[in-house]
Amino acid sequence: MLKIFILKMLSIKDLYVSIDGMEILKGINLEVKPGEIHAIMGPNGSGKSTLANVLAGKEEYEVTHGEVTYMGKNLLEMAPEDRAKEGLFLSFQYPVEIPGVPMVNFLKTAVNEHRKYHNEKELTAGEFLKFMREKMDLVEMRSQLTNRSVNEGFSGGEKKKNEIFQMALLEPKLAILDETDSGLDIDALKTVAHGVNALRKPENATIVVTHYQRLLEYIVPDVVHVLYKGKIVKSAGKELALQLEEKGYDWIKQENEN
Amino acid sequence: MTDQDKILAEVTQNEYKYGFFSDIDTDIIDRGLNEEVVRTISKKKNEPDFMLEFRLGAFRKWQKMKMPNWAYLKVPPIDFQDISYYAAPKKKELKSMDEVDPELLDTFNKLGIPLEEQKHLAGVAVDAVLDSVSVKTTFKEVLAEQGIIFCSFSEALQEHPDLVRKYIGQAVPVADNFFAALNSAVFSDGSFCYIPKGVRCPMELSTYFRINAANTGQFERTLIVADDDSYVSYLEGCTAPMRDENQLHAAVVEIIALDRAEVKYSTVQNWYPGDKNGKGGIYNFVTKRGICRGVSSKISWTQVETGSAITWKYPSCILIGNNSVGEFNSVAVTNNHQQADTGSKMIHIGKNTKSTIVSKGISAGKSENSYRGLVKVLPGAINSRNFSQCDSLLLNDTCGAHTFPYIEVGNKSSIVEHEATTSKIGEDQIFYCNQRGIDTEKAIGMIVNGYAKEVLNKLPMEFAVEAQKLLQISLEGSVG
């Protein structure tokens, strides 16, 4: 008998989201299967980051309509920390600083919260340090950084690397990279992309939210969606990214204004 | 939390209400305060004459004083004639741990307090053949070998009256303030500590290790004298929620540091803060002051304050000796309806004196948290320096944080710096932690501990670990 699993990892149906009474997302539909990389592109203010944050469970966004299923569960009913522990990871566009909390402690707590959730033994300090060192090489994370407070005194590039480093430690099923390329020079961009690609597994999926096509040269998407005014107005293969680069977003704007 | 609050309220308030009168066996004198009461206290304790004179002097001055009202506190009227000033504070002893409120035990376990200590704190009769007893005895022997005196105040008055007489009232004169005068007149007991010349005290001195240290009552008095070239680190209090049936606390702590002596004084205060609606709780009016009398001497105060309904407390340093150093490091947490008006005074008198103030206020619930500080540099205190940093962290929109800094500089060669920040705990920070799998309560604990780290780092290690857990516990349920 052949068993075929067409498991949808993430399924977004007709999602409407408001913030402070202003409607940002106006009927999003999206399906992501394991192994896939989806890119979400669009001009500024189209709702890209809103989508990323809603999926991660940020409070101030109000879902007014629609549903989101993640690994067979109603994602919108889950607490943000449970979403994280179920394998949903958000690489933040602007990672926040937490003064006085050493990176190492933060990461150890995060990793052990995940392990507890999955009934695995918590790592001791020694075990964690060993685990951490393995992952550090992946994004060329300098060891001084892990001794600093969370994101404090990190350069823009270091913050973004730090996000991917955390992704490496937490081994998510679905990673959402929110403008991970912004503020990166070409070398840092390559390092980050290398990290993302190295972490890729057939059972995992990635959503890359980006304004530019640049990152997609290194992280090659299966599908590219264009988000405009809170709706996905176009979906196609990776060539769409190149088209956008060439024609600019005005092309999309014109098509949709008429 | 509610259950714990309730039980704590029961334990504290009920006993306050009934305990004083129902225990006929206890040595109690009638409520009220007059000269006769002061004489009786002194007599019952078999004190030397100078002590009685000291008490009477204080009492006469106290009679002419008024309760201070300049602090940013709403203090309900206190009837000082409605208190019994001599009652060996008897607690209802529970027979076994089964009688202790499970919520309280849960808190103990969260703090990682050993079982025997839990019994001690919860008021369970502790078996006399405890390990800890022999531990205490060993400590005493080690200290005695070095000539260190560490005993109860009553004992010191019997055994070392000349030392007490020489130093008492030096840092906190009897009429220094209303509460100090009251304490000077009626203080029940406390601790006395003397470190001889050239001795570095080999261990952290803690009241916990002193036999009969607990239950010293509401008017506690501590006197620490560090002779030339000596060093001592002194720990006050304990991080567990203390049962305490006294509502008004007016303690005095005096520290005298002679030439090149160093005294570190650390406090973790976690008395009953009252319930969620602001009912009950301890009123804590404390006068703590150190005199750096000798050249190059140093006194540092480190405090973590999470308890009490009202806190009125300004650990201070008077820097008389040239090149002497004063430090104040504080974390004050207020939640629900707690009020704290706390800070420090640094009085620079000697040349090249230095002081540092680091104050971290954390407010939650409907609490009010104020920093009040005075930095005074006298004309003769040339080349003196002070650095003050006062940070406030707000956990919601219903609490308050206030800063009242007073600065007086009497010469041109001194430098005084003051920095202050007020911030609200970042929802973005909490969300960031959530997104990494850390729940909100843990996240707040982590963020708050990070914020207070500078001060927590000044605490002795074991104390710091407990203080961290305590910060987290006191803020449980304060956000969201």
UniProtKB/TrEMBL annotation, chain A:
Q: Which PROSITE patterns match?
A: ABC_TRANSPORTER_2 (PS50893)
Superkingdom in the source lineage: Bacteria
- Nucleotide-binding is among the record's keywords: yes
Q: What are the ABC transporter domain coordinates in residue numbering?
A: 10-254
- Entry's Gene Ontology molecular function annotations: ATP binding; ATP hydrolysis activity
Keyword entries, A-Z: ATP-binding, Nucleotide-binding
Q: Which Pfam families match?
A: ABC_tran
Q: InterPro entries annotated for this entry?
A: AAA+_ATPase, ABC_transporter-like_ATP-bd, FeS-cluster_ATPase_SufC, P-loop_NTPase
**What SUPFAM superfamilies does this protein's entry cite?**
P-loop containing nucleoside triphosphate hydrolases (SSF52540)
The record ties this protein, via SMART domains, to: AAA
Family as reported in the entry's similarity comment: Belongs to the ABC transporter superfamily. Ycf16 family.
Q: Which NCBIfam families match?
A: sufC (TIGR01978)
Q: What name is this protein filed under?
A: Fe-S cluster assembly ATP-binding protein
Provenance organism: Mariniphaga anaerophila
TrEMBL record, chain B:
Which species is the source of this protein? Answer: Mariniphaga anaerophila
- NCBIfam families noted in UniProt: PRK11814.1, sufB
**Similarity comment:** Belongs to the iron-sulfur cluster assembly SufBD family.
Q: Which GO terms describe its biological process?
A: iron-sulfur cluster assembly
Q: Where is the SUF system FeS cluster assembly SufBD N-terminal domain?
A: 137-201
**Annotated protein name in UniProt:** Fe-S cluster assembly protein SufB
Q: What are the residue boundaries of the SUF system FeS cluster assembly SufBD core domain, all occurrences included? A: 209-450
Q: Which domain of life is it from?
A: Bacteria
Give the InterPro entries listed for this entry.
Fe-S_cluster_assembly_SufBD, SUF_FeS_clus_asmbl_SufB, SUF_FeS_clus_asmbl_SufBD_core, SUF_FeS_clus_asmbl_SufBD_sf, SufBD_N
